[in-house]
Amino acid sequence: MFSLELWWCYMSYSIADQLRKRLKEKNLSIREAERQADLKMNAVRNIIRGVVKQPTAHTLKMVANVLNCSVDDLLQTDDPTDFSPVHKKDTGLSLPLKDYDLLERSVHTVIHMAKKRECELSIGQALNLIRSIYSYSSKKPQKTIEMDFVEWLFEGALNSEKD
Predict the structure, then answer these.
(1) What pTM did the predictor assign?
(2) For all residues of the chain together, what is the average pLDDT?
(3) C-alpha 43 chain-centroid distance
(4) 84 SS3 class
(5) pLDDT digits (tens, 9 = 90+) for 136-158
(6) In 128-147, which positions are buried (b, 16+ CB within 10 angstroms) versus exposed (e)?
(7) Radius of gyration of the chain (CA)
(8) What whole-number distance in Å separates Cα of residue 156 and Cα of residue 162?
(9) How many whole angstroms separate alpha carbon 106 and alpha carbon 142?
(10) Helix or strand run (H / E) with residue 71
(11) pLDDT of 93-106, one tens digit each?
(12) Residue 155: which of 28, 65, 63 has the closest Cα?
C-alpha cells in the first residue's frame, strides 16, 4: 500500500513528466507557458523541479488550458508498466475509498453545482465529476474541495456535451 507522502512524490514526478512532454510537443518554453497562463515566474519551473509538490487547482487549470489538455491529463503517467497507484487508462474507480466524508462532500458539491447551473448531467458525467473532485481533493493536505477547480470541471463537462 502506498502512503500519501509516497503518492504525492509519485504524482509530482508524473506531473513534471507530463509538463515536460507537453511543453516539448507544443515547442513552448517554461517561461512562455507561465506567461500565457498568467502565472508568476517559476510557477511551472518549480513544479517540474519538484520544489512544488502539490500545485494548486488554479495553477494546474491555467497550465492545462495553455497546453490544450485537462488537469487529469497532467496527473497521468505514460508508462503502463510503471509500478504506481495510477495508470493512464485507470478510471480511478479501483482505488480504495478511504475518506467517506470527502466522498459525501464531493457528491453534495456536484449536486449543488448541477442545481445552481440548472444543467442536466448524465449519471456518467456526475460520477466522473465526483471521481475527479474526490481524487483531486484527497491529495490536498486539508482534504478541501476547491470551488474554482469544481467550476472548471463543470465548464469542461458542459462544453464537451455541446461538442
Answers:
(1) 0.50
(2) 77
(3) 16
(4) coil
(5) 888 778 888 989 888 888 877 76
(6) bbbbbbbbbbbebeeeebbe
(7) 16
(8) 10
(9) 14
(10) helix 71-74
(11) 566 788 999 999 99
(12) 65
Residue 38, by phi and psi: left (phi above 0), alpha (psi -120 to 50) or beta? Answer: left
Residues in the chain: 163
Cα-based angle 64, 40, 24 (whole degrees, multiple of 5): 45
Pull the grid cell for residue 70. Answer: 485537462
Please tell me the distance from the alpha carbon of residue 41 to that of residue 43, in angstroms, as a whole number: 6
Question: CA dihedral defined by 96, 113, 65, 21, rounded to 10 degrees?
Answer: 10
For 3-46, how does the pLDDT look when each residue is reduced to its tens digit (9 = 90+)? 444 444 444 457 888 898 899 999 999 999 999 999 999 999 98
Mean pLDDT of 104-121: 92
118: phi > 0 → left, psi -120 to 50 → alpha, else beta; which?
left
Phi, psi dihedral angles at 68 (to 5 degrees): 55, 50
d(CA 150, CA 136) in angstroms, rounded, equals 10
Name residue, grid cell 482505488: 95
Surface-to-core class of residue 15, CB atoms within 10 Å of its CB (0-12 exposed, 13-18 middle, 19+ buried): buried
